[in-house]
């Protein structure tokens, strides 16, 4: 009888062992189903994001970054479902994209906002900028409005509506120095510093281009509104269709927002005094 009990116990032990192995295998397969998250970004944001990728890897979250050189392809690619998210645009820019394209995209989390400035390699002060100067500003509606607001803040122009963040060149009511405006894609403003008299640009793009020290603006905007914070953007149905991937992405965003290593990377990349965030 004792022998039979031992045999039964042994059989039960084997069955239980197989049961445990099955649970582990099932759990591992479920984890693997999530796979690698793919986030599209601009080269100017890549370094701190890569630090977040390394931090996430320590927690078992696999993330791959894909860099885009323009501001159109990241949203097209996301809308097609080829990437999980992108990180390069703020809410006003996204609003304009949705209006123009009909894409179904939304923010899943917030990154950093940066101050913007007016830069020049030719002149040391705004007073030195001459009449008929060539002034470079972004060509997209949202960032052009932001540039014009900064030029107004510097008392170089006047806008018809001083509070309209979507102002266009045609909305300038006074241009006493008769500036000649040159419109380029946002990322290219950093490259224009070598040729133009005055350039509106962003610290992170300038640091990447190495054309001028981002701290050497003739004037910075005085705005600390996180309206212009860069967003982690996903498709509208992402959380519904890919709940497990969405949870992993949320954890990655939390790592980006809370990791001391990431904060240090942002400080080095942008400059401690040139960026801000609700969570900083």
Automatic annotation (TrEMBL):
Membrane topology reported for the UniProt record: Lipid-anchor
SUPFAM superfamilies: Periplasmic binding protein-like II
UniProt KW keywords: Lipoprotein, Membrane, Palmitate, Signal
CC annotations in GO: membrane
A Pfam family annotated for this UniProt entry: Lipoprotein_9
Subcellular localization: Membrane
Main subcellular location: membrane
PANTHER family with a match to the protein in the record: D-METHIONINE-BINDING LIPOPROTEIN METQ (PTHR30429), D-METHIONINE-BINDING LIPOPROTEIN METQ-RELATED (PTHR30429:SF1)
Similarity section: Belongs to the NlpA lipoprotein family.
Protein's name according to its UniProt entry: Methionine transporter
